[in-house]
UniProtKB/TrEMBL annotation:
GO terms for biological process: base-excision repair; mismatch repair. Pfam families: EndIII_4Fe-2S (PF10576), HHH (PF00633), HhH-GPD (PF00730), NUDIX_4 (PF14815). Binds 1 [4Fe-4S] cluster. One of its GO terms (molecular function) is oxidized purine DNA binding. The gene is mutY. It comes from Halobacillus locisalis. Signal peptide: none annotated. Adenine glycosylase active on G-A mispairs. Base excision repair (BER) glycosylase that initiates repair of A:oxoG to C:G by removing the inappropriately paired adenine base from the DNA backbone, generating an abasic site product. 8-oxoguanine (oxoG) is a genotoxic DNA lesion resulting from oxidation of guanine; this residue is misread by replicative DNA polymerases, that insert adenine instead of cytosine opposite the oxidized damaged base. Shows a powerful dicrimination of A versus C, since it does not cleave cytosine in oxoG:C pairs. This is Adenine DNA glycosylase. Its cofactor is [4Fe-4S] cluster. PANTHER family: ADENINE DNA GLYCOSYLASE. Belongs to the Nth/MutY family.
Length: 362
């Protein structure tokens, strides 16, 4: 009730019809040509929205095209081996997106005859389909007036409507979802929601918004007051923890390389990598003894050849790349194996470890 009153107050003197018409007209004229906009197929919309989470449009385009070639429909994705799916996702990051997508698509094939649900309840119960993805699929593919609110949309509306709520708080998202429910076009929700996304991507950008090109400029309260760069309000996240590692490129006498699969749960789950040794409590010499105890192999290495830094949302890996060779022992590790350099291309690696491929002897 409190949110409803607040929303009513925010929109009390705002011309919704003018806003809808200006936004939709601008979108239809200025929208970018993107592969997932070729049609309104809900599966294509779904895949694109999952890929676009935390990832730039230019980066996503080739991945989307490749993914759709390999898995053109829900059935082909549902039946694929998980490692094949992760390989197609290799380099996009946030790999739980790919696993959750495949899990959800399997459910669509099993329970809905391969047709993506067109109602909020069933769609929202699928793994990895949160409120934003649900709203995007329903509005873009099925023309259902459902809000699709992400950081872009909150930034755009916080400026247009002069809302100073902290967008880092979950409660603020509820306010913006309610605002979109009131503002969305019943006649063309697909163009409305895509227009909001496009406005945030092209015009109402985080820094240096192009206000003079904005189709909503004459209705924008922040622009009128000259405070567009001060919005949205967003508290900063906690500082990421830095973790030092050795990344070991290890070869045996046969020229094979040691790789290992990460656990099936957690960060970068089920991807393959070079062995890593955490250096928080170990020096280089102690790391060799730890490695022998953990893997059953005695190894020798020289000085680090490169420093690789990889930033996650909550931590930073600082990795020293070391080239090593096996000098004794027997491999004894359930998730590790030796492969030839030629075989490695079949295994999905995270971007941070792909950078070390160049140190393998060919």
């Amino acid at each position: 009730m409190k949110n409803q009153e607040r929303v009513k107050d925010i929109l009390s003197d705002f011309n919704k019809t003018q806003f809808q018409n200006s936004l939709i007209e601008w979108f239809k004229k200025e929208q970018r040509i993107l592969p997932w906009r070729e049609n309104q197929d809900p599966y294509r919309v779904w895949v694109s929205e999952i890929m676009l989470q935390q990832t730039r449009v230019d980066t996503v385009i080739p991945y989307f095209n490749h993914f759709m070639e390999k898995f053109p429909d829900p059935k082909s994705l549902a039946e694929a081996d998980e490692q094949e799916v992760l390989k197609a996702w290799e380099g996009l990051g946030y790999y739980s997106r790919a696993r959750n997508l495949q899990t959800a698509v399997k459910e669509v094939v099993a329970d809905y005859d391969g047709v993506v649900p067109d109602n909020p309840k069933d769609l929202g119960e699928l793994k990895g389909v949160g409120p934003y993805t649900k709203g995007a699929i329903l509005s873009i593919a099925y023309d259902t007036p459902e809000p699709a609110v992400d950081g872009n949309v909150m930034r755009v509306l916080s400026r247009i409507l002069h809302v100073e709520d902290d967008i880092a708080k979950p409660s603020t998202r509820k306010v913006f979802e309610q605002l979109v429910r009131e503002l969305i076009s019943e006649e063309d929700p697909s163009s409305f929601n895509q227009g909001m996304m496009e406005l945030g991507a092209l015009i109402c950008t985080p820094k240096n918004p192009s206000c003079l090109l904005c189709p909503i400029q004459d209705q924008c309260r922040a622009f009128e007051q000259g405070i567009e760069t001060e919005l949205p309000v967003k508290t900063s996240k906690k500082k990421q923890k830095k973790v030092p590692y050795l990344l070991l490129v290890i070869e045996n006498d046969a020229g094979e390389v040691l790789i290992e699969q990460r656990p099936s749960q957690g960060l970068l789950a089920s991807l393959w990598q070079y062995p890593m040794v955490a250096l928080e409590d170990l020096d280089h010499e102690a790391a060799k003894h730890w490695f022998y105890g953990e893997y059953g192999l005695k190894i020798e290495w020289g000085e680090p050849v490169e420093q690789i830094k990889h930033v996650f949302s909550h931590l930073i890996w600082e990795m020293e790349v070391v080239i090593a060779r096996v000098v004794g022992g027997q491999l004894d590790h359930e998730r590790a194996q030796f492969v030839t350099p030629q075989e490695m291309s079949a295994y999905p690696f995270p971007v941070s470890h792909q950078k070390a491929h160049k140190y393998i002897s060919q």
